[in-house]
Amino acid sequence: MADQQRRLADNQEQQERVWGADELHRHYATVHPGLLRYLRVVAGQSAEDVASQVWLEIASSPDIPPDDEGMRRLAFVIARRRASDMRRRWWQRKVDVRPPGSADLERAAPDIDAPGDTTVRLLRLLPRAQAEVVLLRVVGGFAADEVAVMTGMTPGHVRVLQHRALRSLRRHLENRSDGGL
Hints:
- The protein is mostly helical.
- It has helices spanning 2-18, 21-42, 47-60, 68-93, 105-108, 114-123, 128-139, 144-151, 155-177.
- Helix content is 75%, strand content 0%.
């Protein structure tokens, strides 16, 4: 027990040396809005829970990147893994719960403002892989090579998925403006 408390105190001391509370708040303010938008699509109604898990893991990690870019990359990687774990648990339990991409928007994210409402609704029209690539590239601001590493795809495949997703969204919006959906 004493050994565990000593390790916890050493970890906390190391974190305070690496970065202080002000730095964590600055990183949180910079990274969290985009992270939450990403999670609202990939984790649905559990977005806030997954985001809190991400920040808890970051806060307890001894190796924290000092810059905003490194923090953003770390947060999105953790978020993607947490969302995948959540989907896996849903399927393992075999509960009658629809995956996040198919949940209706009103139940999944009632606190999203009107413009975000439309964005999330449009992204849910896409297959999950395409929506995730668009989110990571546009909302996350990652390069195709970075998205490829995060998702386990090739950079070419990431670009193809992004192209197909944007083409599909453009067609949908054109049909909508012509009196369609």
